[in-house]
Amino acid sequence: MSQDKTLNRQILLASRPQGEPSSQNFILREQQLPTAAELAEGQVLIRNHFLSLDPYMRGRMNDGKSYAAPQPLGEVMLGGTAGEVVASRNANFTVGDKVVGMGGWQEYFLVDATQRGVLQKVDTTHIPLSAYLGAVGMPGVTAWYGLVKIINPKAGETVVVSAASGAVGSVVGQLAKARGARAVGLAGGADKCRYVVEELGFDACIDYKQHPDLRSLSAALKAACPDGIDGHFENVGGMILDAVMLRANAFSRVAMCGMISGYNGEPIPLAAPQLILSNRMKVEGFIVSEHMDVWPEALKELGGLVASGKLKFRESVAQGIAAAPEAFLGLLKGRNFGKQLVKLV
Amino acid sequence: MSQDKTLNRQILLASRPQGEPSSQNFILREQQLPTAAELAEGQVLIRNHFLSLDPYMRGRMNDGKSYAAPQPLGEVMLGGTAGEVVASRNANFTVGDKVVGMGGWQEYFLVDATQRGVLQKVDTTHIPLSAYLGAVGMPGVTAWYGLVKIINPKAGETVVVSAASGAVGSVVGQLAKARGARAVGLAGGADKCRYVVEELGFDACIDYKQHPDLRSLSAALKAACPDGIDGHFENVGGMILDAVMLRANAFSRVAMCGMISGYNGEPIPLAAPQLILSNRMKVEGFIVSEHMDVWPEALKELGGLVASGKLKFRESVAQGIAAAPEAFLGLLKGRNFGKQLVKLV
User: Fold this and answer.
1) What is the interface pTM, i.e. ipTM, of the complex?
2) Is residue B2 part of a domain?
3) Which residues of A touch B281 (CB under 8 A)?
4) In Gene Ontology terms, what is one molecular function of this protein (chains A, B) (predicted)?
């Protein structure tokens, strides 16, 4: 980069949403970056190429008890990024290196890379850079953990996943298929369902928008899962989880990964928890960042599958940092189709 | 026994309850028993001394899908019994042997004891016969499985159990204490709570009848569990489970053993299943009869603790087979105090 001052555009959390968030909760700020010569020893400056938008961010916008600290007001929104080193005073990173990290909703990421784990170099020879924010990143490992460590499907079992065309759900179903299980998705709309079956290779996909009540959705699940449901990967919650539980087999496992239907504070009671007992189910919530021990194994499988073209994924790409808030609000409403990214270059 | 014909009084299921069961659902029948000389090869005739009444029996009175076959209409109610061999044409059993089995709601139990596992000889030198239906029987192993295999408390953790003065709950808390955990019970009434703390040695017990709403019960749990709840053994469900979940710690475990609050078909929704995710909880249902592999280990610990007086229990004893239906209806309403038995001799 030149020695001229460069502007870094950032999105900050301006206020906490009451219920459904809006673009008013965010604000764009421009900040001057240091020049290469001004970097402190150990620092690396990255130009972010892609910003990852993920449902978990909605939870962090709230104040109050949760598994993660709230996103601070007036600070850059947290988020995963993939980019290229443009200046470095750190022996481990060279200009041109492709890296991923928690760079936040901004165009440039200035970080002290002497802290272990804050920046990972990635190889883009066989895997596109953006995939490190999706199938070969946090969403992929999330899918892997819930499927492998909680659901652990046997060949011939049936695995259901909600938000099946999304960054996590699409990987869950493909990993289930790779293990010989029947994969059934739930997605919103005929296009997404067609993609889930025809492109991702799921055995069936139910358009939940065609099933506005529990009875109808349960009947659709019965048709798609003639042998019942042995494993369920939950990204949505609410009526979808109720309907799945009505079709759950004895000793079935539910990996609770997300409850996006309740992220704005709506009550989402579970109608019949007694089914957990009568079906001897295991229902387990998890946060993938608390299971760092499995990441190498998971990334090895996921990276291999993506590099060989066996694991497919799709991206919704918004353009420019200013578009991030609207893209995020759309993600919460299911308007994305596949992994939601913001392209910053 | 004499060669005279002996009458065997039995309680049959006459009709399936619609909602709350009543004495009208049962009928008493008298049947003639064979004489000792009339036994077939391999058969054993037992005089039942005690009949065990347990909440699971309510579920079996219903028709429809469950983990166990429904109790057939017009047949002797199923149930565990402890008694004494009064006639035998089986080399493994001798008149005078004390035995336990699924003898049913009747005074005598005629069984082909060549079938493996239908009849177990028990030693009453240090353990009273009735305890084999409680703390050293199915309820005890139920407590042991849920506590040891699902909750698995570490020293210093807090374990909560509902129906804490009952056959299962009383053992859960004492086993938790033996493992260095804090044990907090929920029970109905001051007498039961006093017993749970003063006799059984729990650290605290909450009289749920004093807390008719979620807010009040949750506040009582907060006071009794200042460090939150790490493990919960659920016998009741409904508002109790909701209140416990509001105080659940990260990585807490819920063993779902019974949902007696919903046994008559009332809806018992779980208010906030998203807590399973945000607290990374594990909620697991189980049926102890599906884990026969752990029975020897569990019974060894339970028998040792009862024989040495370290594991305390209490019994509610109804007298005579004709009293069984009313005693069972009382059990479902929590009128028992400790293990509910019917004494038949």
Assistant:
1) 0.91
2) no
3) 284-285
4) oxidoreductase activity, acting on the CH-CH group of donors, NAD or NADP as acceptor
